[in-house]
């Protein structure tokens, strides 16, 4: 993979990042969370023609070695993976550990051995594969809390009552999760973007087209956010980008 742009500017000479243990460590350093700038990073995979799911209804047809390499590194530097319940059901979420060679010593700001999984759900209806001891958190509104606890089977201390993206960020941060990675779905990303609660938007653009019909990355109410390109790397199978919210925005 060739790193062409970093820190908001083009590099005088491309920097090689090999897709192996040494390259993973380099990439982890690039994506490390600034202690003074904790926040929410969205990570999504898309194709050149903008598809985010394949004809099987999952992101499986978009995956490739470059994407898998970057995704595993990002999860290794993340305190908590935040995701909607529908995405958990469709994409078969279980244990979002991250790349094995980056787990010890922990690179997460919290110092934890593995990331927590925080699932947003009104009903608390979760797949049988989800276990409380991962650790797994359920994020739901106060009005749905009791029902969600009963349906999910999670202990009460694992349930967070938060009504909106700002409250969700605050609740997770108060539990010590400083590096939050939002992985979908598209309506969740749209909600957080509209609320001004996305700090980074990271893409793996697969060098493939799928045609057909696919939702956009942000699928919901219209909102405008200006972004600045912070990182650009080109691999054999995907182009990797990171955008930060433009300076001056709250």
From TrEMBL:
Gene3D superfamilies: Dihydrofolate Reductase, subunit A. One of its GO terms (molecular function) is 5-amino-6-(5-phosphoribosylamino)uracil reductase activity. Keywords: NADP, Oxidoreductase. The keyword NAD does not apply. Pathway: Cofactor biosynthesis; riboflavin biosynthesis. It comes from the Bacteria. This is Pyrimidine reductase. It comes from Brachybacterium endophyticum. The lineage of its organism: Bacteria, Bacillati, Actinomycetota, Actinomycetes, Micrococcales.
